[in-house]
Amino acid sequence: MIRVYIAENLADAHLVCNRIRENGIAAHVFNEFSNGAVGELPFTHTWPEVWVEKDQDEDNALAVVNECQLAQGVDSESACPECGQLNPVNFEICWSCSTQLVAD
Ligand SMILES: [Zn+2]
What we know:
Alpha-Beta Plaits; 2 domains; 3-stranded antiparallel beta sheet; two-stranded antiparallel ribbon; 27% helix; binds zinc ion
């Protein structure tokens, strides 16, 4: 297991995690619930993190993370027609319900 991303919020974490999964990499969001820190690290935070199961997937996962961050540089979002969650306009699939988002 290796951490590839620290998200600013849960939506962000799920976006990145889903993107990584779309690339065939097993990934998980941790710190999803900010109750209880893992370990006793001095700078423990409760931001959600994205981890990949296999260390050898790190490079590919990081490439996806970079893509996501570039996409998020576009400061606009569109609401999912299915569940109403906001998605960055560049995303093709809703992070929440995986509905195909309509691109215009
Ligand atoms: Zn949705």
